[in-house]
Amino acid sequence: MEPTDPPTTPAAQRPPAPPAYPAHWEADVVLRDGATAHVRPVGPDDAQRLVDFYARVSDESKYLRFFTPYPRLSERDVRHFTHHDWVDRVGLGLFSGGNMVAIVRYDRIGPDGRAVRTGPGGRSSTAEVAFLVQDDQQGRGVASVLLEHIADVARERGIRKFVADVLPSNRRMIKVFTEAGYTQQSAFEDGVVRLTLDLRPTDTSTAVMLAREHRAEAGSTGRLLNPRSVAVVGAGRHEGTVGNTLLRNLAASGFTGPVYAVNPAASGESIEGFPSYPSVRDIPDSVDLAVVAVPATAVQDVVVECGRKSVRGLVVVSSGFAETGPEGRARQRRLVITARSLGMRVIGPNCLGILNTDPAVGVNASLSPRMPRRGRVGMFAQSGALGIAILESTVNRGIGLSTFVSAGNRADVSGNDLLQYWEDDPATDVVLLHLESLGNPRKFTRLARRVARTKPVVAVKSLHHAQRIPLGHATRALTLDDKAVDALFRQAGVIRVPTVAEMFDVAQLLAYQPLPAGGRVAIVGNSDSLGLLTQDAATSAGLDPLRPVDLTTSATPDDFRKALGDSLDADDVDAVVTVFIPPLTTHGDDVARVIADMAERAVAVGKPLLATYLAHEGLPDQLRRLDPDGIPAQGSVPSYPAPENAVRALAEVVRYAAWRRRPAGEHVDFDDVQADAARSLVRARLGAADAAGLSPSEAAELLGCYGIHPSPAIRVDSEDAAIAAAEQLGYPVVLKTIAEHLRHRVDLDGVRLDLGTEVGLRRAFRRMSARLGGPDQARLVVQRMAPRGVATTVGLTYDESFGTLLHFGLAGPASELLGDVAHRLVPATDQDVADLVRDIRAAPVLFGYRGAPPVDVAALEKLLLRLSQLADDLPHVTSVQLDPVVVTEGGLTVLDARVRLSRPPARTDLGPRAMRNPY
Prior knowledge:
Elements: E1 27-30, E2 36-41, H1 47-56, H2 59-66, H3 75-82, E3 89-96, E4 99-109, E5 126-133, H4 142-156, E6 161-166, H5 171-178, E7 183-189, E8 192-198, H6 203-225, E9 230-233, H7 242-253, E10 259-262, E11 276-277, E12 289-292, H8 296-308, E13 313-316, H9 326-341, E14 345-347, E15 353-356, E16 363-366, E17 374-381, H10 384-397, E18 401-406, H11 415-424, E19 430-435, H12 441-451, E20 457-461, H13 482-491, E21 495-497, H14 500-512, E22 520-525, H15 528-540, E23 544-545, E24 549-550, H16 557-569, E25 575-580, H17 588-605, E26 609-613, H18 643-661, H19 675-686, E27 691-693, H20 696-704, E28 713-716, H21 719-729, E29 733-737, E30 751-755, H22 758-771, H23 775-778, E31 780-784, E32 790-799, E33 803-810, H24 813-816, E34 821-825, H25 830-839, H26 857-873, E35 877-888, E36 891-894, E37 897-902
Parallel strand pairs: 5-6, 9-10, 9-12, 10-11, 12-13, 13-14, 17-18, 17-19, 19-20, 20-21, 22-23, 22-24, 22-25, 25-26
Antiparallel strand pairs: 1-2, 2-3, 3-4, 4-5, 6-8, 7-8, 15-16, 15-18, 27-37, 28-31, 29-30, 29-31, 32-33, 32-35, 33-34, 35-36, 35-37
Helix pairs in contact: 6-11, 8-9, 11-12, 14-18, 15-18, 16-17, 19-20, 21-22, 25-26
């Protein structure tokens, strides 16, 4: 008998295919104690892991989860908890070392509280959520992390509320829900607390999430920088080898904890005075930090050994990873994934190492032979070779460091992690960053802006003009031009300098002198020519120098004392620069003692004192003020080899101090905004497409939801249509082309202004149609004539690294030809947009240039704030171009608006806690 096909179901009646495995829900996370773990969806392959996990959970925790004794899971239970449809039923697990240590799941429910499936008539937006955490993992923030991730998944699947039934005795779980920051309700019935959480993010929930991220990332970095014991894996006996150098440097640094040498050939004899072992697992005591210096091919096995030994963190000095090509990149990815799964963070690979000068730690786990003196400056670098030069510079200048990290390929720990750590580190007052690339620019600017409010952040961003990144760095090249990057750094309060030397010039002033209250500079010296040179350099740097005080080459120490004292006491002085050249009649040390004495008064009155002293660079011994431990302290006077260096550093510090004094500003939310209507419009227009441009009417409708109303323009294809449009809008009118290929062709006369009569409009239509290829090609519109004013360009643009940016400039050649355009990150504060408007070189045109009346800058700033709110609410709006926007004395008119939608990559700077993907 012939085989027959099974009966088929019509396509319209078949249930939709279940979604594919949601790999984008996977994430590495940092827990409260700084250890790492992995969050991912739970699936059928996890059945045995679930059974093993449940066996490790105490009877009490099981009772709190199921409200009844529940000693073991049945086969049906195991299937229920491991088979999900990723829409109505979702489970996420937290895994450490390959073992499941916690699980959370939600089930979509209907009004009666029973589980429901998504149906053609719509779906419920409520789900029941429940957790179970292994007892020895409780208190580490596990449930809080899982709540962040399951809430994010639920929002993606259209769920807006969670309900959770919790026994009153389960105080820990109640606390997880109540402290999450979501809007919530609670009720008590039949001995159970029912909690209802509105999953829409609030200011409080976002603040809670960021605070937890900060504590976790700072804690994980602190574990690496403050080890109690160190193992050097790959320690060699031969002087000059990498492993032997690391051991020698640890010995010389005075590290306060035990050090272990690990070498497969170890026979129990000591290496450089430290006990040796064939593997990390053979070390009898605990190990906090492993410094790995073995061939790249052997690193993976070492990582696994360290994980089994419960090592807390790794510094991988070994090279041979992503910097070598695709094979090394894959090796680097395996390194990071394995380390994180075993609870460890990684510095490196291909790095110089770390240093901590705190006498309670005293660790030099690096290849640098020079241990800098203790100080209050934290330093992050990427390149190992450059790191050695940087450390040499700190030693030569006498600048003290608190901690130093060279991250090499920066596969895991990055500058953002160090910012989190240094923000709360009481031993660090100034942060220095040498950045060859930015892994997460949006997160960097968010963190830097917060840190810079209390601690200066100085950054060297190298590769200014190269649109590429160094080999081995797991990130994309920046696409913004360098001027725009500068503006975004300034918005975040970061002092960006072009060279390492200038970074230290600024750092030695910030670390040892007070911040100035302004830019008025007194100049005191014993050389008239150097005084005038200093004055000229200060003026060029944007400072306001007073006339130099020339004491002549015969000046005595008392002359310097009086002149410096008078300058520090003067009301019209904010900072003092003293210039001292080798004298003919006075010994230099005598003058140095005077300068050092006057520094105490400078600190007391809050005015920085800096010097060009005998061409010294850094902190000369004669100009130092020492604390009881003999460490240069606040009031030490920084010296510069030339006046230009001194005033350039001072100018940077003056600008930073002014930024810090300014209010941070507020994010303005306008009450008339119709965000829901705008979202519906975006969804309908974008649909399943990846990108779409809006028509003029659609753009006007979307912008109107945010109180932005472009001047109406009516498309016309005949003289009579043009006349009808003019009568509808009212004379005088403008006739212009909106054809993209003609808009900016000045030579083709694509716009006629101030047409006040029917005759003039008909004549203009005939001429423009003929000149531009006929009505179809010309694409002419009639628009009411706007009042005359200053034509500007305002808009939003999307950058892959920084996200959506506001931009502003004057319309026409100033922005198009000269690039006079300023940028700011969104969401922007009122202070941000005020700075944005004033940041372009042509800004004086807005404020009454050459007798012209000033325009309504307040209306312009309000427009920018409305655009910022739109960008923050609607991430799929990736381009808005309002050009021109004509600003007058009493308002503004948007004459043209173009809007484009697209699907931007998922943001990695906000959302549930997740570590940067290693690739």
